[in-house]
Each structure stands twice: as structure tokens, then as C-alpha cells.
Amino acid sequence: MTERAKRRRFTAEYKLRILREVERCKVPGAIGALLRREGLYSSHLTSWRRERDRGAEAALVAKKRGPKKKAVDPRVKLLERENARLKRRLGRVELMLDIQKKASEMLGIPLSHPDKDENA
């Protein structure tokens, strides 16, 4: 089984050096010789020039691959905080209800159940 070829990664410095060399080429065929010597394609030059023109050296740095991280919507953060606050409050209310039930049992006070309709 043959080993799979790895994708070449070019540094910003390398890209700039090659672009400068290409700009210095005046003799017909010199650019082709440079590309053969470096093992590059003319499409590399095209995309590197476009990147350079768009954003100078910052654009020449390799782009990260893979899925992009989703920015968290500020409303989501607000709702998550409110949800946590309401859960804490619910826990306190349930604790208070348990205490009231135990106190009413100890004192013999009957509790009315909200499930049962008293008017029926």
C-alpha cells in the first residue's frame, strides 16, 4: 500500500519571496522555469497575488480549515443566565414547600391540594 501524499503548506515568507522573484523575471520563460524549480503551478501565483492584494501579509497566512465556530448570540447568554437564576429560585421554593408540608403534618393542619377542586 502506498503512502498518501501530504498537502504542501506554504509560509507567508515563502509566498512573498516567490512573488518577488516572479516580479524580477524579465526573460520569456523565466517564470515557467521558476515554477518548475519550485514545483509550483501558475494557479499558486494567481491566488497568492490575489491574497496579497486583498490584505498584504496577513492574507498570506494559511487559513484554518474545518467548521467555523459559531458566535454565541448575546440573547442566548442572557437567556441561559435567566434560566439558571430561575432554576435556583425554583429549588428554594420547592424547599420552602417541603418545610411547610412537614410543619403542617407535625401540627396536624390539613393542607388543601391544588389538584383537587374544592368547589366540585
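Second entry:
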Amino acid sequence: MLTRPVIVLFSFACGLAVATIYFSQPLLDTIGAQFSTPTAEVGIVLTLPQIGYAIGLLLIVPLGDIVDQRRLIVGQTVLLGVSLLATAIAPNAWTFLASITALGALAVVTQVMVTYTAVHAAPERQGWAVGVVTGGIISGILLARTVSGALSDLFGWRSVYVVAAIATVATAGMLMRTLPRSTRTRQALPYRRLLLSTLRLLHDEPVLRSRAIIAMLVFAAITVLLTPMVLALTAAPYHLSHTHVGLFGLAGAAGALGAFKAGAWCDDGWATRVTGIGLSLMLAAWALAATLHWTLLGLALAVVIIDFGLQSVHVANQSLIYRLDTELHGRLTAAYMTFYSMGSAVGAIVSTWVYSVHGWTGVCLLGATISVGALAYWAISERAAHQHRLRHQPHPEALQDPITHGACERQ
């Protein structure tokens, strides 16, 4: 079983790894100017790492079911450090874009660590342990903006990737020394069949399928908020520096604390209620975000609320899918997180285009529309699942409403 210090180290390592994808977010204007990229197209700087992340999810994360996860985690972390250094010294746009794509593919080490945690944590504390590690991931996503903004203002944008490369290699050393060797029996499965079985899970597991679609929508929504936010804040009337833009990441980190409590709630069987509340909060946050024209406070509150909602939904999703089969955690994670990455990639490129054409109001309308879609899909899928159970497993408890009584947890 994993000890608390190892879980905390995992949380830090995951936060650092995933932060590497988002360091460029508050630097979009600077990087765009460096490589002469138009505003409407600068979202590609965030889209390519997400595409790389999706590739890594499909091709690397499933390996955790058939190879030594300890070696996989340490090896990926070292290579991630190398990719960060390559990004820092990139001489032109093509080299930079290739480096950040590779960086995204290797950053999926976070998901290998999440599956490792889910498998090796004590069963009664699985939700809490996954919540702590996931909290590290969300905090890394948010604090990446704060750190990169400050470093960029002090030493230039390339310094961000140099510092991250050093920290990542050092973290790999700590993981190699402290990570317990896995005693889990691994399946002898050819790589091709491993990949095909990952895709088959989406067809065979309705819970995985519905939760993956919800993940795609909620991560698209938060990317729609955070990607053009830097463009709006650095323009008139605020003209904020990268350091000040990065401070919004601190606000979001407060919302990320929801991971710890959400994981405990899911352990108690409240994953469906957690999902509904989280989705509702994400929708409500857009009304506050729309006040950016008058005040920065509304946007700061929106970031806190939408991150809390996202974190709660994400932990609830993982809590449910990891109950499906303990031998398939790597493939379940790969299938689920591929949809997350798709949502983030599409949200990044579409939101910058919408901002360039329709401004911040258009961004808020787009985000609210996606959030409405996520909430509606969740309600419809939960009711459909409830009706399916009524037809196939009739019993008195099944007569309870799925949304108000958390039927999804008892599938």
C-alpha cells in the first residue's frame, strides 16, 4: 500500500509534469510575437501539446497494464525533462512546435501515476488518494500560469522551460529512490491487442463512455475560459503583465482544493451528486466571467468556482471508472483521458478564434453553451442508466431517482 509521503510526492510530480503543458498559456502574446504568429492562430501553441497528450494517452498509458509501472514513470519523467530543454533552446517556430508536441506526449506520465495510485492505495482510501494526486494535477495546471508569468517577466519566456527541465529531472531522481516496486501481476498481452482493447472498452463500458464525454465537455469549457483570458487581460483596458495574469492561477488553485473533499465524498458513495453540483457550478461561473468588462473580481471568482466544479466532476468520474476493473486501470485511464485531451485541444483553438472575432462576450457565450451541454448530457445519461437498471435489475431501491439519490454509484 502507498504511504502518505509517497502519495504527496506523486501529487507534486504530477503537478510539475502537467504544468509543462500549460506554461505557455500566459505567454501566448510573447511567444506569438517571437515566432510571428497571428492572434487568431496563436492557440496552436496550446493545441499541439494537447494533441501530443492524446497520442501519449493512446500509445503510452496503456503500457502500464503490461510493463513495470515504476520504470515507465521514471523513464517518462527523464524524457520529459529532455523535451523541456529542447523547447527552451528551440531556434525557430517549427522546432518549438515539435518540442511542445513531444512534451505533451510525455506529460501523460501523470496518468500513469494516477493509475498506479488507484491500484496500490488502500481500497477504503482510494478516492482520497486519487483526489490528492488529481489535486496536484489541477494545481499544477493553474499554478503553471503564475510561475511562468513571473519567470517570463524576470528572465524571459525561455527561462521557464530551463527551470522546469531542471526540476523535472530532479523529481525523476526522487521518484526512482522512493517509488515502491510494484508487486502487481502484469498481463502478457501483445502491444497491438493492448491498444485495440483500449478502444473496445469505450464500446463495452457505458459508464466509461458517458463519463469520458462529460470529461471532454468540462475540459473544453475550462480551456475556453483560460486560453483567451490572457489575451483579454493583457489588452485594454487592463494591460496586465504576465506576472499579474499568472496570479489568476492562484485563485484557481483555491478551487482545486475541491479535489481532496470530492474524493472523500466519492468514497462515501456520492459521486453522482458531486457530478451534478460540479456541473451546475461550472455553468454559473460564466455569469461572473462575463463581468470582465467592468471588474476583475468577477473573473477571479469565476476561475475559483469553475476550477472547483471541474475538479469535483473529474474526481467523481475517476472514482466511477476505476471501479470497473482493477486489471484495466491503464487502459481505462487512456480511454477516459483521451476525451479530456480532445476537449482541451478543441477548446484552445476555437476559443482564440472566437475571441478574435467576437471578443470576450463571445467567449463567455461559447463556454456557457458547452457547460449547458455537459449538464444536459449528464442528466439524460443518468436517467437512461436508471431506466436500464429498472428493466434489467428491478428492486425497491432502484425506484429512487438517480439524480437525487446517487444511483450511479451503485451500478
